[in-house]
Amino acid sequence: MTLPLSPRATPEVRVGITAVGAALPKQRLTTADLHRRISQASGFALPRNLIQTTTGIEARRVAGDGEYASTLGVLAARQALAQAGLEPSDIDLLLFASASRDMVEPATAHIVQAELGSRAHALDLTNACNSFLNGIDTARSFILAGRARRALVVTGETPTRSMRWKLSSLAQARSSLAGYTFGDAGAAVVVEPVDRGGIVDIDMETYSEHWSIGGIFGGGSRYPRDEERTYFHGDGRLLRRVFETVGPSILDRVRRRTGWDWADYARVLVHQVTMPYLERFIEITGVPKDKLEITITEFGNMASATLGVQLARVCPELRPGDRVLFVGLGGGISLMTMVWEKS
User: Fold this and answer.
1) In a domain, 1, yes or no
2) What is the pLDDT at residue 186?
3) Which residues form the domain of 81?
């Protein structure tokens, strides 16, 4: 558990999100088409409506040829800069905070920076589906430490590249099923000092003993050239059980520190893995469904871009003083919350 940022300990310098952008690939892949393509490639039929019934996902966006994690990140970054009325040269910290990347080396942040034409301090930050929230928290810390004046936090997620299209058995289908929840997307936010509001509470909790439950294990020093491990592998039921066991405690801590309950938030943005996961989250926490921005059915699990895309969708309706609670869930395992008040 990290030491949380509490409203009572808010520093004199306030830091907040001042602009947001999001990008979705044009190519739309329905779950019915996904199911059909996998069955045709595998030489045996998957159980009827297996993916649809298990995930509740109707479609997702898929990056096309020539579209990469950086491509989606750059599109979102340009939107955020335009919304803020800024030029790339106005940014002095660029964080590419994503589970996806263009390549192992160099950092994808440099590819994004080269496309934007900025000269900021640039680096990657990776922590599965919590990468984007971690990036915002890190940018805030840089600014409070006097290491940056204005940051651009970018994510570009292409997890559909880890889908297994050809199966050898139903057992392999079960271990690959979590990978069929994915959708591709990009998001970006400008983070800088604000006069009021801003990021007022942050907390994170990790359960790293569960790191092996799910992931893309190939490409690193452990399995550098193992094609089998370039596909997403995971135990969705075990992952859900862990989140259900440990998740409520972090929300209880936020409530105790802030004194705020669901009614005090304009919106609650939650990382969405499947529709059954989300329904269970609603049941356990009691969050009113109308506070949520449901993206899972149409866009799938967009990894760390999920919360950024949700924020871009709800931002036009927010007024100064409105509070948004972000709830992040990530492989590893990590849980994260952030409370942001619109300036």
Assistant:
1) no
2) 98
3) 14-194
CB 188 within 8 A of CB 80: yes
The total of structural domains in the chain comes to 2
Q: How many C-beta neighbours within 10 Å does residue 174 have?
A: 15
- In this predicted structure, the answer to whether residue 310 has a pLDDT above a threshold of 60 is yes
pTM value is 0.94
Sign of CA dihedral 81, 84, 90, 92: negative
What is the pLDDT of the chain when averaged over all its residues? 92
102 and 160 assigned to the same domain? yes
> Is residue 58 one of the residues assigned to a domain?
yes
Domain termination residue (choose one: 169, 194, 219):
194
- Across the range 20-35, mean pLDDT stands at 97
Torsion, Cα 55 61 311 338, to 10 degrees, reads 50
Whether residue 76 is found in the same domain as residue 149: yes
pLDDT at 8 > cutoff 50: no
Q: Above pLDDT 70, what percent of the chain?
A: 95
Per-residue DSSP letters for 97-133? E-S--S-SSS-HHHHHHHHHT---EEEEE-BTBTHHH
206 lies in the same domain as 151: no
